[in-house]
Amino acid sequence: xxxxxxxxxxxxxxxxxxxxxxxxxxxxxxxxxxxxxxxxxxxxxxxxxxxxxxxxxxxxxxxxxxxxxxxxxxxxxxxxxxxxxxxxxxxxxxxxxxxxxxxxxxxxxxxxxxxxxxxxxxxxxxxxxxxxxxxxxxxxxxxxxxxxxxxxxxxxxxxxxxxxxxxxxxxxxxxxxxxxxxxxxxxxxxxxxxxxxxxxxxxxxxxxxxxxxxxxxxxxxxxxxxxxxxxxxxxxxxxxxxxxxxxxxxxxxxxxxxxxxxxxxxxxxxxxxxxxxxxxxxxxxxxxxxxxxxxxxxxxxxxxxxxxxxxxxxxxxxxxxxxxxxxxxxxxxxxxxxxxxxxxxxxxxxxxxxxxxxxxxxxxxxxxxxxxxxxxxxxxxxxxxxxxxxxxxxxxxxxxxxxxxxxxxxxxxxxx
Length: 416
Hints:
Layout: H1 20-34, H2 40-53, H3 61-71, H4 81-87, E1 98-99, H5 118-139, E2 145-146, H6 154-159, E3 162-167, E4 173-176, E5 179-181, E6 184-192, H7 197-207, E7 214-218, H8 220-225, E8 228-229, H9 235-256, E9 260-264, H10 276-293, E10 302-307, H11 313-322, E11 326-329, H12 336-344, E12 350-355, H13 366-376, E13 385-389, H14 398-415
Parallel strand pairs: 1-13, 2-7, 6-8, 7-9, 9-10, 10-11, 11-12, 12-13
Antiparallel strand pairs: 3-6, 4-5
Helix pairs in contact: 3-9, 5-7, 7-9, 9-10, 10-11, 13-14
């Protein structure tokens, strides 16, 4: 019941939610009304509904004005791709650089099955930052990566630092295996609260490596789709509000000294409508949100966009419009058909392929990984191909991960 929330429910939200005990109370109210008893409950419920319809709960007029203003002008990132690519050469990356697309929890010594509070999550990230970067340095990766570890839910971690969100203390949803997360409830307008835990932790990670650091941030569309949002605020409106919050995060990471930011839109492919017209509209809206999120990025800051689905022709055109510096494709393994499509549409930006073992019981040899990389090079120029690890590696133990990365780095060096 609501007592488990400890009195932390925002004003008005309590009128919108019902746990088991509250449902029982509602049934009792209906039973009393059926017998012409407790008529006062009708007036009370009417006042609650009027309050909800008034739209005052969690209202932020500054955020709404910002969103309205963004619709009246074209938002683009500073500099075209050629200018940005020239500026990003200062990263000093080799041909076909290797990096993680996800941070394996096992490599940071984190218990992936534990449910943690926000303070505990922050402490885990602080302890693990230097360790995970050091592990990647030792594995020979060209761009160490950092973000929320596998035991933490990246969407919950990021959204917990935004206003307009509430996370239940007594209710959880299953993410994967033993991993659970408090379901994000969007009860009002969304905005950053000022100050970012991730940027503070990133400073420690930066100190642990001389190589360029890549930090992952949850994308606006994926955050929205993982949340329980108010039905009376249009999804497109909330997505734009989230995009401005991500924009603030990207800005704070730049100030901290981060030169590469990965935007994870892992859920974009899962929620595409079946009809082609609706898909085009959905992708166009997602592209606008992405452009807002990275609009403050300097030309020297590399922006990576990570997706998990097999693109078709309309999707390729939309991704071209997003204009990320690096597009990471996780298609359940190397998808040559997808690379061929990008080649046909003369996609000039860099493309990252995600390579992973077929199972955690089978370690691919460096020769097999080299063969896969050379297959990708038939469709992507060597100076535009990036090598990343697939999602499956996120669940591997430290020993398996180290062995796989050794073979992967050897394969990348062989094709340079």
